[in-house]
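Help! Submission page says 'invalid entity' but I think these are all valid:
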Amino acid sequence: MYTLYSMQRSGNCYKVRLALAQLAIPHRLVEVDILKGDTHTPDFLAKNPNGQVPLLEVAPGRYLPESNAILWYIAGGTPLAPEDRIVRAEALQWMFFEQHAIEPNIGAAYFWLALVKGGRELQQHALEDWMEDGYRSLGVMEKQLTGHRFFAGERYSIADIALYAYTHLAHECDFDLSRFPAIRDWLERVAAEPSHVRMDFTPLPAAAE
Amino acid sequence: MYTLYSMQRSGNCYKVRLALAQLAIPHRLVEVDILKGDTHTPDFLAKNPNGQVPLLEVAPGRYLPESNAILWYIAGGTPLAPEDRIVRAEALQWMFFEQHAIEPNIGAAYFWLALVKGGRELQQHALEDWMEDGYRSLGVMEKQLTGHRFFAGERYSIADIALYAYTHLAHECDFDLSRFPAIRDWLERVAAEPSHVRMDFTPLPAAAE
């Protein structure tokens, strides 16, 4: 059984928890608190030298980091992972976009404004850049979703899961989505997918072995 | 035949040009100058609303952006793209790492210090963060390469191509690689791969149709 090291309030971790739930994959969940330094202990760094969650133990002692790589790993061979060559490339396109255009902006704003007490004061100099780049990236998403129901191949996939994680938190960190109607409709479509779970969902503990 | 929109001095574009060369895939090359605003014309934005290169026209009127998604698209089914489930996930892991931990730091430092005249003054406030985060990320790579010849599956793959692009430019933008011996050895191994081309390589014009 997989073990997932995850922080409940992390968007990157939520991606994996959502996909595991929708794919009904049994797993053990280990809650890790970034804010308390849990990802920088010698024990954790031995598992992931990059000191980040989510981290999936795919086999005893073999650890896979990076939320979007984990999504491809667990969803491979299921309807959530496109197999057609160009659709798969387009799903990857949006997942790489997510990691350099959404997560560093909306994700960073969320971390400092919603999670860290006093974050607004600490990151005052960076917030303006995150808002500007974040709005520009939301504009790129809005353009794609105007005329497309989902990001790749006109069906719900791990590309949507990847982009949903931080986009659905944007309103909690000062982003105003009122001028992005296509994004708001897509957020509703994603939340209406079968077996959707919210970010505050806590799965039942795995059955005792 | 593919058309690649590319800027000669961009590391992200170099990834694709290197893979196309090593896979001997014929293509037409359109040089685009980011510094002159070529990626923000209405014509270019119609092809890629995100206004970035590289951009691959995979079929007439169908455009694929994102360097690492393009790598997976063109290398699929070749020895450069791992097919084993966990090795493929580990290649993806390092390519996502590259986009959020190397490109935004070493790539940004390279852009402002090596390409933009006066960039050091313009980005003085950000340089310190890029150097700190860049060194931390190089440390993660050094750890992986201590005991591994390549990033995924112990053989040269598109994960190495993705990470090579900006890492081999690090010394041009103030990074000192002397304390990263495993990275320096790996840079040499990558450059010794068959059909390797340097970043300043200009391919022969495609044959007339």
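Support: the input was valid. A stray whitespace character was the problem, and the output above is from the cleaned input. DSSP finds eight helices and four strands in chain A.
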